[in-house]
Amino acid sequence: MVCDKTWTTGHAESYHPPMANFGTWLHTRRKGRLFGKDADGRCYYESTGPARKGGGMERPERWVIYLKGEDASAVPPEWWGWLHHTLDAPIAAEERKPWQLPHQPNMTGTAQAYHPQGSLYATGQHPPATGDYEAWTPEGAPEA
To answer: Potential cystine with 43: which of 65, 83, 89, 95 (Cβ 3.0-4.6 Å)?
Structure first.
């Protein structure tokens, strides 16, 4: 993409090309300036002039070009605040708090997804009935 030309020449074997459609690429070339890159190679951009009103003032747009196959939850905490105009610059990686954990992808729909106790997906079987449930039947309805 605009941030790193190595993906077009194929010199980096482990580098995944950024994911952007033609419209995003064109907008980034015409209206954006590279602000920085994170440790994983995502490129962060800011518009060259005030583009929208937010928080009672005009401020530049900010966006990220994700790597192929990523979703928005992949943005690391040090860049999240900058993207959302909470910080003027991303925090340094060494200033991360202990509760700011590395990104883990959403595992829903995979074998690694969380399955709580009693879930059919956890064991493949219904848990035994405990006898604490009584089915509701309307008054006057014949019992089956």
So the answer is: 65
